[in-house]
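Example 3.2
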Amino acid sequence: MGIAILTQLFLILLAGFFVWGLLPPDWKQTVKAAPWKPVAVIVVVLVIFLAVTKEFLERREHRRAHARVAKVFRETTDPALQKRAALWLIDHDRRYPERLADAGLQLFDVLIRILKSDLEKLDRARAANALGVLGDPRAIEHLLQATQDEYPYVRAEAAFGLGRLKALQAEKRLRELALDDWDAGVRGRAKEALDWLGHPLES
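Structure, written as tokens:
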């Protein structure tokens, strides 16, 4: 939020310089005589107030949306709806893993199902990434299998997940990916994973 406030103040300052350059000389003299210090204080306070209010409202709406989606996920028996809800929860709450507990224990099982059998390759990749975020070590064996997926994005996100889980037993496979995979994205993710393990590729 602090960066957003500074950005807004910077944009206001740039706009002020732009407008100043357009003013005729006699207007500039009038503007110089104005009480700008209190005006500047009021503008800064207003920008901060608006930013804090916006952040509060966005977080409140997100919590409400999370509660609705988590409820749907827990109660539905439709696999397609479970899948959409599970991926939404991970995509929107990856920075707050503790919130994912609201979805219940079956979130892990649904993500494993997506990773192992979903026909949509992008969703398999999202599930691999999500399992790393979820932090359940039971995912390690499934992610190791996913590093053999034909789709490079799935392999890359499986490597990411293994790194997040600090899966030392996956180090050999991650080194193979980092050195030998034909896809640069996979090699990059595998190198990141090795860094997570504390065993960077150079060692």
